[in-house]
Amino acid sequence: MKKRLKFLTAPALVCLLALTACGGNEDTSGEGDSDNGGGEANETETSGDDLYSIDDFEITKENDGEAVGGILNFGVVSDTTFEGTLNWQFYSGVPDARVIEWFDESLFAFDEAFNITDEGAATVEVSEDNRTFTITIKDNVNWHDGEPVKAEDYVFAHEVIGHPDYTGVRYDAGFQNIEGMEEYHNGEADEISGFNIIDDKTVEMTFIEPNPSLLGAGLWYYAMPKHYFEGVEVADMDSSEQVREKPMGFGPFKVESIVPGESVTYTKNEDYWQGEPLLDGVTLKVINPDTVVQALRAGDVDMVDVFPATQFADNADMSNVDWLGRVAPGYSYTGFKLGKWDADAGEVVTDPDAKMADVNLRKAIAHAVNYQEIGDRMYNGLRFPATTVIPPYHALYHDESNEGLGYDPDLANQLLDEAGYEDVNGDGFRETPDGEELTITLAAMSGDSTAEAVTDYEIQAWSEIGLKVEKLDNTLHEFNSFYDRVEEDDPAIDMYSAAWSVGSDIDPSGLWGPKALFNYTRYTDDKLQELLADGLSEEAFDIEYRKEAYNEFQAYMNEVVPAAPTLYRLEVRPLNKRVSGFTWEVGNNDLGFHTIQLNAEEPAVDQ
């Protein structure tokens, strides 16, 4: 159901939200990915005045009419170029994933609960003790050069990620649970003993401990063409021609050419294992959020990955597109820098003396900001307050009863008072309990004026509880440089505004575990490790037990607050009227990129 709401432009919104932060609405209570809404903010009031919900959107557009082949024009909406690390084993940013998914794909298919089915390029059988998995790749699955996808290619992906010279970010506790992986990773063995290749298409994979995630989305999804990387050292792979210039997969389309960071041209893979694609090819290009509406209305692009939320209300009546929507697989959050990454040990090291080490300081920062107001006023309901670090995309495990760290500036002030943060010198900002000046440096991502407006509002809200927060280098930072500095634990960063796109596997260890490079907060403690382990225990094969384990994890994360979840998202995607055969629905394996079709030679144009 839609509720009526006057949508305000970014400048007006900042003024309004500043008033709210000053106490104008004290009864109001309160998601790597890019954290900005995208889109151009106009100086005049916009016409969008609706508050939207998931009920306002379809999630699938079935095949309609006669396919005419043709080239689909696909836009990746971003204010920065894609990095160009075009391999599942090495990529780290969402824009690169948008490029990869057209030419390479998971070996496995999943149902609506993210359990592996037999509909993918490979099937899985599990031993009675849930430790040994037999993976069989289907006979008609071939790489783009015609070579069959083999069991050794699946093993090779693990050998690369587990290699001592691996330069990516994927080696974590899940890989360490494979028998013999640690010995291989430490250079004590030349192969991973947990793999047993039965024949060209079949491999057995044995784990040290049974893990309920492995029955679903906890396996590594991807194979890597061993023959194609022959002679390339692991340390050089991420910069190699095979990754940067001529990537290869077994997906529905082949890479024909790349303009680094800007565009990719694909041709259809006539030998695709699910059948010849209905499109002749795809042209992918990066589109700035400020020009995406113009491109869609003119028919210059047929689809985009995600439409900027801040622009939807003003363009919902675009006559030449159909809108799809879903609850996004991710969330925005405010992360606190609480330690460092020990590259030699491959683990986080929490610093008890970090500037942000006081949990009451972190809680106060979370309680100070009215994210309901931001979601309604800035995003017309397409974003809404986040309560835990397991988003509602994982509906089975998201704890709806957890109210999170809601908007409560009075509580924020109380927490700071009790922790000894007081304004000693009368300048309007609190000093540390030791009486020293406190300035907190925030790293945030650029985008459009929406990103700037939200960040400015947050800083204003924090100032209203007496905290002096300043932008890193007094500016916002583009996607790639932002994550470089966060990942490298830049000492200038005290906290950061970021977002995660989550995968199919519910296990949060890859983001918050002690051996996860993606744990950018660098926080861990014994109880957190116990809770993460409990969700992967033998008892957790019982779904109700696992749900309770992850409820406890969500509650504990809100207790220790290494990161404060801020916003969940609804994603909307426009499809030109000539496009059909596409779905966002988890578990709908009848539709994929190979079923997308064009029903007319020319795109529809907005009238």
Automatic annotation (TrEMBL):
Residues 121-511 form the Solute-binding protein family domain. Its main location: membrane. It comes from the Bacteria. Residues 1-23 form the signal peptide. PROSITE patterns: PROKAR_LIPOPROTEIN, SBP_BACTERIAL_5. Residues 26-49 are annotated as: Disordered. GO terms for molecular function: peptide transmembrane transporter activity. The keyword Signal applies. It is a lipid-anchor. The keyword Signal applies. One of its GO terms (cellular component) is ATP-binding cassette (ABC) transporter complex. GO terms for biological process: peptide transport. Keywords: Signal, Transport. It is found in: Cell membrane. NCBIfam families: Opp4A. PANTHER family: OLIGOPEPTIDE-BINDING PROTEIN APPA, PERIPLASMIC BINDING COMPONENT OF ABC TRANSPORTER. Belongs to the bacterial solute-binding protein 5 family. This is Oligopeptide ABC transporter substrate-binding protein. It comes from Shouchella clausii.
